[in-house]
Structures are given as structure tokens and as C-alpha cells.
Design a protein that fits this description.
Number of strands: 0
Number of helices: 3
Order of helices and strands: HHH
Largest sheet: none
Radius of gyration: 14 Å
Amino acid sequence: MLSKAALDFLLRLTDWFHGHWEDPEWGKRPTTQILIALALRDLATGLHDAESRSQIQAAADKVIAKSGQAMTRA
């Protein structure tokens, strides 16, 4: 059984992605790529392994930067 804090976090996460899983194109556009990367970056803060945490956050930062650039070009 999940703790109350874990359930609250899952509810916030599902609110964040509310209804987007029904869209087959969701996750392919730069705006949704940024949302996914932000969620991964936030989830990585809970990792105890500092090396893994920094690798995930660096990858998420790269996606955010590339997707942000793609949004400005569009």
C-alpha cells in the first residue's frame, strides 16, 4: 500500500497529464516533450544515487533545451 504522500504525488502527476494519454500524438510535440522532461526531472530528485540523479536531470535538461528551441522556431 502506498503512503499518503505517495498517493498525493500520483494524484498531482495524473492531474498534470490530465487526459493527455488519450491523444495518440501526445508526447511527440515539443510542448509535451518539455512536460515529460519536467516530470522526469522532478521524479529524479527522489533518487538517492547522486550520479544517477544527475544523469537523469542532465538528460531532461537537454530535452527541455532542444524542445524549447524547436518551439521558438515553429
